[in-house]
AB hydrolase-1 domain-containing protein
Amino acid sequence: MTAPTSDSGGMSPGAKWAIAGVIAGGSVAALLGAGSSALAVYFARRVITPARQRVADKEVLAVIRDGQTQQVILAANDDTTVDGVYGFFFDGGKGHARIGRIISYSPAERTVLREVEAVYSGDLSTARWGWWSGATYPDPAAVGIPAEDVLIPVERGEAPAWLVRAKGTARTWAIMVHGRGATRQEALRAVGPALELGLTSLLVSYRNDGLAPSADDGRYGLGSTEWQDIDAAIEYALAHGAGEVVLFGWSMGGAICLQTADLSRHRHLIRAMVLNAPVIDWVTVLAHHAQLNRIPSLVGRYGQLMLGHPLGRRLTGLSAPVDLKVMDWVSRAVELRTPTLIVHSVDDEYVPYEPSALLAERNPDMVTFETFNHARHTKEWNVDPERWERLVKAWLRQQLAPRLNPGSGLDRGSQPGPGSPARHSPAEA
């Protein structure tokens, strides 16, 4: 269920006085008491403040070497017991390994033995803790794909990107946008399918991700500001031979793509979007995280008010309020006019899938919705790369087929183009 959206335009006078009371450090009666007010501030700041270090919450129990091969015994949890291929970062992120299939699993001992497919950096045998990731490769070279390092001019400097050129002259470029707390490594999973479709790929960085220049306030805009860096990437693509683009986005990267398709002056050149576990509605996501962290719902809602109200800047550090209502694409479903494929796991623990389903239900002409199982957050490719790539390639082939000839009314290609009805598919086993 979608939580109600709060914004200054529709806020009651009582709510305005309440948020003012919190921000001014007023009496307990102003809202929830000093403790709850502080908790609301903490929650709001956590949402928009980039983490400088990921939490190493996956325990390495042993590494077994057999000749040239390695296996790793990990503490069993909801991530490590799902089959597939994953990235494992350790030693503060300096070490990176690719972890493959499950060899054995002992529920009684709460351990899982998995294959180690590759160690790109660091010494896994000395690792004790690390974190699980969908980013299985460190760079294009590890995938065996030639790439160029390029710099995209953005507001405060230059943002590094990987440019992977398709053979021949590619008029359609794929611009790939990673999620919150991730890097462009996340998008390497989609480069292979893009190349098969003849798309040149631009794997970008954006403000506050650790590679691109930081924003003035050093805070995430949750898509409301980051889209400008993606617009700059579109400018770069157009200046270097692109005639149109396809946007790929993961998690918050999906929210950024939606804002780009809505606000960019080049939005008419965005042929399609492929969104993986996207944030469709921040209110739902924030309510979900408040519940996960056992924060009372009222405290969570006032945290959201702080993000969206001008008075909240004193406590959040934002240079401008974040309008969550503008980024609610469930409510704005009919305004989405870019053909969009959404891939989302029904057990996503970080971004609930229900808003994705609702968007597809309310705008079936533009949105195709495909569900996965057991993939958790943004790891649909990791769980079943063959299915993910098959879905993406089939859908994009349809969207990128030659458009109708407006002069003759005859289809110049054998497939319907963008704007033809999309489908809403049920989950597959």
